[in-house]
Amino acid sequence: SKEVRMQSSQIIPANILSQPANMKIAWKWLKENWLEIKKRRGDTLSRAANSFIRSMSITEKENLDDVVSFFKKNPVPGIEMALAQRIEGSQITIAFIERTKKEFK
């Protein structure tokens, strides 16, 4: 809503995205509200998008593929490094989880 301060509009979603249990819900919300976020953030969209990307706790390949696909379709100048780092970190996390699952089955 318009009652949410600009700095909170970045911090709250980033905090929720950082929690693995909430990632899917928060990511769905972010995608559904992307046009409004773009409109409200204007020139500071890259700052918010970097914050969102750096905070994401991506532990499933499907989520990672969706994030990559989304930002290919909705490019934001200035997020390339954060996105590349998140992709790499998420790939490592996903591989670790898959190896660990096999060990404990």
Care to describe what's here?
The protein is mostly helical and about 100 residues long. Helix content is about 75%, strand content about 0%. The chain has 6 helices and no strands. The protein has helices at about 5-15, 25-30, 35-40, 45-55, 60-75, 80-105. Helix 1 (about 5-15) runs parallel beside helix 4 (about 45-55). The radius of gyration is 14 Å and the shape is elongated. The relative contact order is 0.13. The mean pLDDT is about 90.
SSE topology sketch:
Layout: H1 6-17, H2 23-32, H3 34-41, H4 45-55, H5 61-73, H6 80-103
Helix pairs in contact: 1-4
What is the C-alpha radius of gyration, as a whole number of Å? 14 Å
Mean pLDDT: 90
Please provide the ordered H/E string of secondary-structure elements: HHHHHH
Q: Structural class, please?
A: mainly alpha
Task: Please give the share of residues in helix.
Answer: over 70%
Secondary structure: number of strands: 0
Major beta sheet summary: none
**Strand residue percentage:** under 5%
What's the total helix number?
6
Shape: elongated
Distance between the termini: 46 Å
Low-confidence segments: none
